[in-house]
Design brief:
The structure holds 2 protein chains of 2 kinds. Chain A is an all-beta fold. Helix content of chain A is about 0%, strand content about 50%. Chain A has strands at about 5, 10, 20-25, 35-40, 45-50, 55-60, 65-70, 75-80, 90-100, 110, 115-120. In chain A, strands 2, 4, 5, 6, 9, 10 and 11 form a 7-stranded mixed beta sheet that branches. In chain A, strands 1-3-8-7 form a 4-stranded antiparallel beta sheet, with no helix packed on it. In chain A, strand 7 and strand 8 (about 75-80) form a beta hairpin. The radius of gyration of chain A is 13 Å and the shape is globular. Chain B is mainly β. Helix content of chain B is about 0%, strand content about 50%. Chain B contains no helices and 11 strands. In chain B, the strands form 2 sheets. In chain B, strands 2, 4, 5, 6, 9, 10 and 11 form a 7-stranded mixed beta sheet that branches. A 4-stranded antiparallel beta sheet of chain B has the order 1-3-8-7, with no helix packed on it. In chain B, strand 5 (about 45-50) and strand 6 form a beta hairpin. Chain B starts with a strand and ends with a strand. The chains are: A mainly beta, B mainly beta. At the A-B interface, strand 5 and strand 10 of A face strand 4, strand 5 and strand 10 of B.
């Protein structure tokens, strides 16, 4: 059974940093691109970042230069390093797995339950 | 960036009725790489349809997807009580960035 479990969220002051983690199980993690998607409570979904199976990274314009995505295949883990956080980064952050191995143009077939990040003074 | 516009914003129907949800793209969605997700309160999104018309594993056959190019539709043939939730479309043909529609809320009438 595929499982994705996020952690690392919390309350942080504007300008500070936070690192989110997502531990994966139930599939060959190293073969799949992974994503972070966020959702302001009560609002829609916003794609944040992706990392390919071979470590090619991509970012939404809203986080480019502030967030860094990386992975540790030995630990079956995905990370999102978030720096220079702003109040509008406040959201529930989901990690998601792509539906095809070795592909970037793929739907998101499994999602974690999310970890809440609140940026406020 | 491919902008996805979903309509209607809210759809009020009764159990047993047919639901038709629309997703329109600002430009052609490459290879019909269009997915639909269902999200219930307090839960993560759940994949329903990918490639515009392929049902994900375990999705009941009352859910179907259609369309191509810029116009896509999610149809629920006979609404069950558990189908009342929010639905999002997403394109993944242009991977920078991937984009979602703003969502359609399916309400019980």
């Amino acid at each position: 059974e595929v499982q994705l479990v996020e952690s690392g969220g919390g309350l942080v002051q504007p300008g500070r940093s936070l690192r989110l983690s997502c531990v994966a199980s139930g599939f060959t993690f190293e073969d799949y691109a992974m994503h972070w998607v966020r959702q302001v409570p009560g609002k829609g979904l916003e794609w944040v970042s992706r990392i390919s199976w071979n470590n090619s990274a991509g970012y939404a314009d809203s986080v480019k230069g502030r967030f860094t995505i990386f992975r540790d295949n030995a630990k079956n883990s995905l990370y999102l390093q978030m720096n220079s956080l702003r109040p509008d980064d406040t959201a529930l952050y989901f990690c998601a797995k792509t539906g095809y191995s070795y592909g970037l143009n793929a739907h998101f077939d499994y999602w974690g339950q999310g970890t809440l990040v609140t940026v406020s003074s | 960036e491919v902008v996805l516009t979903q309509s209607p914003g809210t759809l009020s129907l009764s159990p047993g009725e047919r639901a038709t949800l629309s997703c329109r793209a600002s430009q052609t969605v490459l290879s019909n790489y269009l997915a639909w997700y269902q999200q219930k309160p307090g839960q993560a999104p759940r994949l329903l349809i990918y490639g515009a018309s392929f049902r994900a594993t375990g999705v009941p056959d009352r859910f179907s997807g259609s369309g191509s190019g810029t116009d896509f539709t999610l149809t629920i043939s006979r609404l069950e009580p558990e189908d009342f939730s929010v639905y999002y479309c997403q394109q993944y043909g242009d991977s920078q960035p991937y984009t979602f529609g703003q969502g359609t809320k399916l309400d019980i009438k």
